[in-house]
Specification:
Blueprint lengths: L21 H8 L15 E16 L5 E22 L2 E16 L16 E14 L8 E10 L21 E12 L3 E12 L10 E15 L2 E13 L5 E14 L4 E14 L1 E2 L2 E10 L1
Antiparallel strand pairs: 1-2, 1-12, 1-13, 2-3, 3-4, 4-5, 5-6, 6-7, 7-8, 8-9, 9-10, 10-11, 11-13
C-alpha cells in the first residue's frame, strides 16, 4: 500500500529543469529549424560554407537615386564557418573569407567572376580570418543569443589603394562584428528570426582612412511545409557611419529556401536585390550555402 502523501514514480510531475530541451531534438533531427542564432549542444559541431556572387552595374547616388555605371563590378565570396558547442550556453569557432573581384564592361555576365582569371582587373585571395564566440546571456532563454566575431585581414592592400589599379577586394581594417539574435516560433509552421548588429571597422592607423561604424537590422520570416523544407523571406537595412564624413546606407530584400538532404546535411539557396541606398551599390546577389551539423 502506498502511504498518504507518497506518489508512484510514474505519477511524479517532472520539473521544468528535468524536461528535455526541445532544441536538442531540433538540432539532431530537424536541421532547418536550427536558426542562424541557435546554440549547438555540448560537443556538437557545425561546419558551413556560404558562397555568394554579388554583381552591380548600377549604384545609388548621394540623393538615393539609382544611376547606371559604365562598368560592372562582381564579387565572389566564399565564407567558411566552424562552430563547436563548448557548453550548452557557449559556442566557439572561427570564420574565414575567400574573395574574388572582377571589374568588367557594364553588359558583361556576372558569372565571369567564377573564371578566376589572372588579369589586372581580377583579384582572388584569402582576405580575412576571424575567431568568434556565441552565447546565451540568459540561461532560461535560449531564443536570444549574442555572437561576437573579430576579423583580421591576412593580405596586403586589400582596398587596392597602392596597387592593382584600385581594385577593391575587402577592407584593410580589422573589424569587429557583434550580432544580437532572437528566434521565435509562430505556431507549428512559421518562425521569426530578428537580428541587430553593431559593427566597427578600425582604421589601423592609416592616415586618411577613417574607422567605420555600421548598424544593421535584419528580419527573416520562415515557413516550414514539412520537416525537410524551409522557405523564407528576408530584409535588412544597414547604415554606415563615417563620423564627420557622413552616412551611407543600403537595404536589401530576398527570398530563399533550405533543404534537408540527409539527417545532418542542409542546402540553402537565396536571391537578394538591393532595393534602396545612398552612396552604395544597387546590385543583386545569388547565394548557395552548405551546412553540416553532427
Amino acid at each position: 500500500m502506498i502511504g498518504r502523501g507518497t506518489l508512484k514514480k510514474s505519477e511524479v510531475t517532472p520539473t521544468e529543469e528535468s524536461l528535455p530541451d526541445p532544441a536538442d531534438f531540433i538540432a539532431a533531427f530537424n536541421l532547418q529549424s536550427l536558426s542562424s542564432g541557435g546554440l549547438l549542444r555540448e560537443n556538437q559541431t557545425e561546419i558551413k560554407l556560404f558562397n555568394s556572387v554579388y554583381s552591380q552595374n548600377q549604384y545609388f547616388d548621394a540623393n538615393g537615386d539609382r544611376q547606371d555605371n559604365l562598368s560592372r563590378a562582381t564579387y565572389f565570396t566564399s565564407l567558411g564557418q566552424f562552430l563547436y558547442g563548448l557548453t550548452p550556453q557557449l559556442n566557439v569557432g572561427f570564420d574565414f573569407n575567400i574573395r574574388s573581384v572582377r571589374n568588367d564592361i557594364a553588359n558583361s555576365s556576372p558569372w565571369s567572376v567564377l573564371r578566376f582569371e589572372d588579369i589586372p582587373t581580377v583579384r582572388t585571395q584569402l582576405t580575412t580570418i576571424a575567431p568568434k564566440v556565441r552565447f546565451a546571456p540568459f540561461k532560461k532563454n535560449k531564443d536570444f543569443t549574442i555572437q561576437s566575431t573579430l576579423y583580421f585581414p591576412v593580405q596586403y592592400s586589400l582596398e587596392g589603394y597602392e596597387e592593382n589599379g584600385y581594385v577593391f577586394l575587402d577592407f584593410d581594417k580589422n573589424f569587429w562584428f557583434n550580432q544580437f539574435m532572437y528566434t521565435k516560433m509562430l505556431g507549428d509552421h512559421f518562425q521569426l528570426f530578428l537580428e541587430g548588429d553593431l559593427n566597427y571597422y578600425f582604421n589601423n592607423g592609416v592616415i586618411g582612412n577613417p574607422g567605420l561604424f555600421s548598424i544593421a537590422t535584419k528580419g527573416f520570416l520562415s515557413y516550414f511545409p514539412n520537416d525537410k523544407i524551409t522557405f523564407y523571406a528576408m530584409s535588412d537595412y544597414t547604415p554606415t557611419l563615417y563620423g564627420p564624413w557622413g552616412t551611407n546606407y543600403f537595404s536589401q530584400s530576398g527570398l530563399g529556401g533550405k533543404f534537408l538532404i540527409t539527417d545532418f546535411l542542409e542546402i540553402e539557396v537565396l536571391y537578394a536585390r538591393f532595393m534602396h541606398g545612398k552612396n552604395s551599390g544597387a546590385g543583386q546577389s545569388f547565394n548557395l550555402g552548405i551546412r553540416f551539423i553532427k
